[in-house]
Every structure is written in structure tokens, then in C-alpha cells.
Design brief:
mainly alpha, about 475 residues
């Protein structure tokens, strides 16, 4: 029989999970607030600005998602090395991630060059396209700093020391919000810059983020135990191993973002009003969705640590613990989206054009109904894919996400909305169908149990561990 008290006190139960997840949830919440305020400020500035920020931001994160998704896989290596009792391998794998982040900076050059002709080709309204290019270029300058921050942050998440992540993100959130206010609206002698100001505020925050993590990682106590400075050399064997597991994770994230970027671009072709509504809906959903990212990272960390200890039974339990907590959290937001839509829409109406927002509100209420449905299933996607990635099953996650994304969302929207003009609601219906189907496929893979035998770290450092303790993935959740 299920016991809440037992699940709280047991290993891989609620207490263990929340010890790691809660700071990450608060940290993600800080990032959510930063993103939310940024979009609200741009909505106050102009509807074209917030529409351009969504479209160009999504295009940027096609590349940013690939790079940061690959760099973020350092987390699984750190977790499994720590679980296996080999902290001296942590420093070397961090440096392999840093070398990858340096290489990623080379991607910025062609992106900056092709930005203007690309956004002209997309076919958005001229007033929107004129704002997309400069914002996109500034985001490109952030790429190296974002990637390096991702690598250094894995040192803390992989070991379960997530309070540091919280404090760093809080500082950077305040920095971004402060410069957003100054640069977007032209305060304290700064020129009124609009969306360009929002971009430079993001750049400043990214630089501060990278510097803070570098200082914290390179503390003397860390250097001695985890070989932070002594492990600086490029290790071709370890780098190749990191690329083998990390690249599929990065490609999956990048192509997943590409699917959603195409979704947004296609909606932009329907009309600026529809694009603005979609931008607002995504921003509202980020209030619920982004904190659940912390649960996904926690699952990956715990699965990695327990598999490093040869305890797949605890990895299974940690995953189901994540399911309980994330769906409970998302469920509250889903109910609020359905019953209290104006609670979320009203902040966007402040200082916005009343006549323009009168057109946005009724369609926004309907879109929030789609958001309420798909957000529940998307939380399952984060948890089960996090478990699979924490084991090293990155290729399955890649093939499934990309395949279903194009089959159920991108191609149908292109055909039915692009050629047959089905409209905004049809596009969101296809997107919701994709999210639901993806969650059932991830669940099936998790229950299949193949991931329990996977490891990303070197096999030769594992023999000293106890024999594998098996338990079915279908244990009572």
C-alpha cells in the first residue's frame, strides 16, 4: 500500500528529491520571472516588439539549444562519476565541456551574417521583421557565455549542490530586470532602445552569470578534490566519449526547438495578432513549465548518481517521485488556466493599447485551454526523458522527439494551416497532440527498462561496485 510518510523518508523519496529539486525549481522560477518581466515590458513597449522577441528568440535557440543541450550533458557525467566514487574525473570532464563551448562560439559568425536576409525571407510583417534581426544578433553574442555557464553549473547540479545555482540565478535575474527597465524604456539617461535594449540586458546578464560560476567552481576546496585546475588538458578519449553521449542530447534539444520555432514562424505567417497571442501564451505557460525543468534536471542527476552506484531500483523510484511532484505542481496551474485566465492575461493589458488587447483577450482565453491540457503531458515528457538521459539513452530521445515533432506537428501545420488556412486553433491542436503522443512513448521506453543497464562513464571504474540490484520499472509508483 502507498504510504506518503514512507515515500517522504525513504531513499530517492520526496525529501531526497526536493533537497536537490527545490533550489532548482526556485532557480528556474527566477529565470521565469526574468523572462516574464522581459516580455511584459516589451508588450508595454509595442505588440511588434514582443512578437519579434518570440520569433527571433526561438530561431536563436535552435542553435543555442543544440550547444547548451550538448554542454549540459556534462551533468550526467558528473553525477555518474560522483556516484561511482571517482570525484577526480569531474574536473577533466568539465574542461571537455568548456572546450566544446569555445568551439560553439564559431557558430555565431555565420548566424550574424545571415540574420537579416533570413528574417526578410520568413515573411513576417515588415515592422516585426525589422526588430527581429538586431535582437537575434545580440542573442548570438551571448552564446559562448551561456554555454560556459551551462558547463560550470553542471559541477553543482551533478553533485546535488543546487543552492549555488539558485543564488547565481537570483543575482543574474535581478541584473537582467534592472537593465531591462533602464534600456527598454530609456531610464537614467539611457536612450529608449526597446527590443534592442532587452537584448543587451540579456547579454550583460549572461556575462555576469559566466563570471560568477567560474569564480565559484575554482575555489580551492573544489580544485583539490575534483581536479578542477589540474584536469584542464584536452583529453581526446574523454572528449570523444562526451561527444558520443552529449551530441545526441544537444541535437535533440536543438531540433526540438527548431520544431517549435517553425511552429511560431508558421503562426507568424497567419498574422501578427496570432503571433502576439502565441507569444503571450508561451510566456504565461513558462510560469509553470520552466520550474518543472528543475525537476527534470533532478531526475537526470539522481538517475545518474544511482546508476553510478549500481542501484537502478533507486533510479526508478526517483523517477516516479519526480512524476508525483511535477504533475501535482503543473496540475494546479492547469486548473488556474481554465478557471482564472484573466489572472494571467491581465498583466499584459497594463499599459498596452486597449483596443489592440481587446482583440487579444478572447483568443488568449481559448489558447490557455490548450496550454492547460498539453502542460500536464509535457511535465511527464520532462521527467521520463530526464531519466533516459541520466542513464545515457540519448539517441532514443533524439529520434523520438524529432520524428514525432515533424510527423504530428510541423508537417500537419504546414499543410493544413499554411495551405488550407485552418488558422490558429488548428495549429495549437496539432502541437497539443504531439506533446500527448510524446509522453506515452517516453513512458513506454521507461517501463521497458533497457536504460537501467546503461552507463556513460568508463566501464573500468565500475567493477568495485556491488552487483546490480534489479527491480522492475513497473513498481507501484
Amino acid at each position: 500500500m502507498f504510504s506518503w510518510r514512507e515515500r517522504w523518508e525513504s531513499e530517492a523519496g520526496y525529501r531526497d528529491f526536493l533537497r536537490i529539486a527545490f533550489p532548482l525549481i526556485l532557480s528556474s522560477g527566477a529565470a521565469t520571472i526574468q523572462h516574464f518581466v522581459d516580455r511584459v515590458f516589451l508588450t508595454w513597449y509595442s505588440a511588434e516588439s514582443v512578437a519579434a522577441a518570440l520569433a527571433s528568440g526561438n530561431v536563436y535557440w535552435v542553435v543555442g539549444g543544440f550547444v547548451c543541450g550538448t554542454a549540459g550533458y556534462v551533468n550526467t557525467f558528473v553525477a555518474q562519476y560522483v556516484g561511482a566514487g571517482h570525484p577526480e574525473r569531474v574536473g577533466p570532464v568539465l574542461w571537455q565541456g568548456i572546450y566544446f563551448s569555445i568551439l560553439s562560439g564559431l557558430l555565431v559568425i555565420p548566424l550574424v551574417i545571415v540574420a537579416e536576409p533570413f528574417f526578410r525571407w520568413v515573411g513576417h510583417a515588415p515592422e516585426v521583421a525589422a526588430l527581429e534581426t538586431p535582437y537575434f544578433r545580440i542573442l548570438c553574442y551571448c552564446l559562448v557565455f551561456y554555454t560556459a555557464s551551462t558547463v560550470w553549473s553542471c559541477f553543482f547540479t551533478g553533485r546535488g549542490e543546487t543552492m549555488t545555482i539558485l543564488w547565481v540565478n537570483l543575482v543574474c535575474t535581478l541584473v537582467n530586470m534592472f537593465f531591462d527597465w533602464i534600456m527598454i524604456f530609456g531610464k537614467w539617461g539611457c536612450p529608449r532602445m526597446g527590443i534592442v535594449g532587452a537584448g543587451w540586458a540579456t547579454f550583460i546578464s549572461a556575462v555576469v552569470n559566466a563570471i560568477l560560476y567560474l569564480v565559484l567552481v575554482c575555489r580551492k576546496v573544489h580544485c583539490e578534490k575534483y581536479a578542477i585546475l589540474s584536469g584542464w588538458r584536452l583529453d581526446p578519449v574523454l572528449f570523444k566519449r562526451f561527444m558520443y553521449y552529449g551530441l545526441p542530447s544537444g541535437i535533440q534539444l536543438g531540433l526540438d526547438v527548431l520544431s517549435w520555432a517553425l511552429f511560431v514562424l508558421l503562426i507568424g505567417r497567419i498574422g501578427t495578432l496570432e503571433l502576439t497571442i502565441t507569444s503571450i501564451a508561451f510566456n504565461i505557460n513558462s510560469l509553470a513549465f520552466i520550474p518543472v525543468l528543475g525537476c527534470g534536471i533532478t531526475v537526470s542527476t539522481l538517475v545518474g548518481q544511482y546508476l553510478g552506484k549500481n542501484r537502478p531500483d533507486l533510479a526508478v523510484r526517483a523517477t516516479w517521485t519526480g512524476v508525483h511532484l511535477s504533475t501535482s505542481y503543473i496540475g494546479l496551474f492547469a486548473i488556474a488556466y481554465l478557471l482564472l485566465p484573466d489572472l494571467f492575461l491581465e498583466p499584459f493589458a497594463w499599459k498596452a493599447d486597449p483596443q489592440q488587447f481587446a482583440l487579444i483577450r478572447p483568443m488568449g482565453v481559448v489558447i490557455l485551454q490548450f496550454v492547460a491540457l498539453y502542460s500536464l503531458f509535457d511535465s511527464l515528457n520532462l521527467i521520463f526523458s530526464g531519466a533516459l538521459k541520466g542513464a545515457g539513452d540519448t539517441r532514443f530521445v533524439l529520434y523520438l522527439t524529432v520524428g514525432l515533432g515533424w510527423l504530428l506537428m510541423v508537417v500537419p501545420i504546414l499543410v493544413f494551416c499554411g495551405f488550407y488556412h485552418f488558422g490558429l486553433y488548428a495549429a495549437w491542436a496539432f502541437a497539443t497532440l504531439f506533446i500527448i503522443a510524446l509522453s506515452f512513448c517516453f513512458l513506454a521506453r521507461f517501463l521497458g527498462g533497457k536504460w537501467r543497464a546503461m552507463r556513460v562513464i568508463e566501464p573500468e571504474i565500475l567493477p568495485h561496485l556491488l552487483p546490480v540490484i534489479e527491480s522492475p520499472s513497473t513498481e507501484v509508483p
